Amino acid sequence: MELTISEVETYLAEVFPQMRGEFQIDALNEEQTLMRLTPEERHLRPGGTISGPTMFALADVAAYVAILAKIGRVALAVTTHCSIDFMRKPQPGVDLIAEGTILKLGRSLAVVDVKLRSEGQADVVAAASLTYSIPPKR
Amino acid sequence: MELTISEVETYLAEVFPQMRGEFQIDALNEEQTLMRLTPEERHLRPGGTISGPTMFALADVAAYVAILAKIGRVALAVTTHCSIDFMRKPQPGVDLIAEGTILKLGRSLAVVDVKLRSEGQADVVAAASLTYSIPPKR
Amino acid sequence: MELTISEVETYLAEVFPQMRGEFQIDALNEEQTLMRLTPEERHLRPGGTISGPTMFALADVAAYVAILAKIGRVALAVTTHCSIDFMRKPQPGVDLIAEGTILKLGRSLAVVDVKLRSEGQADVVAAASLTYSIPPKR
Amino acid sequence: MELTISEVETYLAEVFPQMRGEFQIDALNEEQTLMRLTPEERHLRPGGTISGPTMFALADVAAYVAILAKIGRVALAVTTHCSIDFMRKPQPGVDLIAEGTILKLGRSLAVVDVKLRSEGQADVVAAASLTYSIPPKR
Fold it and tell me: Which residues 6+ apart lie within 8 Å of A130 measured at CB?
């Protein structure tokens, strides 16, 4: 791995200050990235369910972190595509865990599969595929 | 149309209070829904570009509003799928306009095509297809 | 499982006669469906690579078979959506294996994740998510 | 436009001989590409409806042709992603028309929106977004 959890968190805080405190990195290794969201009022829809944009944001940052950890600082890497299926309501009041797996890491494109689950539950709440464009190295 | 802009805005404020003031409805008619986002600090990434989750949220609510206006109050209609392509950086400091067109409105599923553009620009910033599940009428 | 491999193959031959001999079912169990394509001339592009439509067809039938095996004969189940990422060239002259996993099987919608790999290779050639509409039981 | 209909058809026959006679180009201009499929037995499912893989193939080639006409011979351009929604049954025995519009044509990626309709019908049968990777110019 190119970066440790601590280095990634530091870097995220630099380049995405608005996201400070939103997400936590639980694990970063060759096979998988695990990130966690503890839902707050601003993440919810009436009824207490986590909003679509919040789930999209979690999947997106999990993919970004997976790529970042593999190839180092890539502030200019941008999401070009996301396909996401929302399949079940997340459990109210329970942390949402994102499990990211890199399917492809090429010279200019990366594809990451992300599954979102309520902590402690086997069922997938949402499944996403994110494609990132990777800028050429200077 | 089942509801007017004013009725839709009132309804949105009831069922999605967290979204109060986020988005504005510019037009609602048979062919098309137009919604507007005026970007604030919380919508931006460093460098001033609008974040992916913000664009996702705008596309999502434009689709929801298009369906709502056509068939009336549907608080339980939920997004089941979104495919979104991010193609260009939006213009900094310019409102983002979402143009939604219903492609299919069936008994249980609706598919809406949404194009996002910076106001005044012809190029598409992001293009999305959203699928909503429509609950059976009581 | 509602149906055995033999029963599924018989049923497929009945309802999709044009697909006779195209695909083989390697395994059907609770967790996973495995299907195989042995590429012929008609499946290829110049250079010997398997065509996109062929890979789409394999992913699509793998999803259909996974659902069929779980809930029995569903001739009217139809694909409503597919998102597919083509990530690597398949190995020329090697069978293509589809691994399908049901992510959600609801009353009216099913979502299946399908990974395509060249036999004997760990890398994913293509990854797809297919959504099927399931007709209400008579 | 870089190529005429006649030049594109000649080029397609060279690089995709298996597709000879499958599809016809009706129009090629700055805004739009129109292609036509006349359904034959091999394109159909029981009941006479056009198969998903056939519709995928039509959308895919419409996108490829749109790009080809704009930037010239690009045999190595490959589909990297497709999101497709199947929304209505096509009319039996009627030609299927694909209308392709380039949403983005960058240095390395192109995104094309394709709508499929039965000839003479306003309703969209299927809507797709295809992303193509464009190889760097030699």
Answer: A59, A60, A63, A79, A81, A82, A111, A112, A114
3-class DSSP assignment, residue B54 = helix
Chain A interface with D: residues with Cβ < 8 Å: 80-81, 83, 108-109, 131, 133
Quote ipTM for the complex.
0.93
Bridge partner residues of B82 (DSSP) = A84, B130
* Least confidently predicted of A124-128, C26-30, D9-13: D9-13
Residue found by looking up tokens 């396909």 in the block:
A83
**Nearest chain C residue to D132, by CA:** C86
Chain C residue closest to A81 (CA)?
C85
Residue where the block lists tokens 């137009």? B34
- Reference A84, options D112, C98, D102, C113; nearest CA is C113
Band the pLDDT of B75: cuts 50, 70, 90.
Answer: low
> Domain B5-133 has what CATH class?
alpha beta
Each domain of chain C, given as residue ranges in start order, spans: 5-133
Band (A100; pLDDT cuts 50, 70, 90) = very high
Sort residue C40 into left (φ over 0), alpha (ψ -120 to 50) or beta: beta
This prediction has a pTM of: 0.94
pLDDT band at A107 (very low <50, low <70, confident <90, very high): confident
R_g of chain C computed on alpha carbons: 14
Q: Which of D1, D102, D12 is nearest to D57 (CA)?
A: D12
3-state SS class at A21: coil
Contact indicator for C61, C19 with CB cutoff of 8 Å? yes
Per the CB < 8 Å rule, is D109 touching A133?
A: yes
DSSP lists the bridge partners of residue C117 as C97
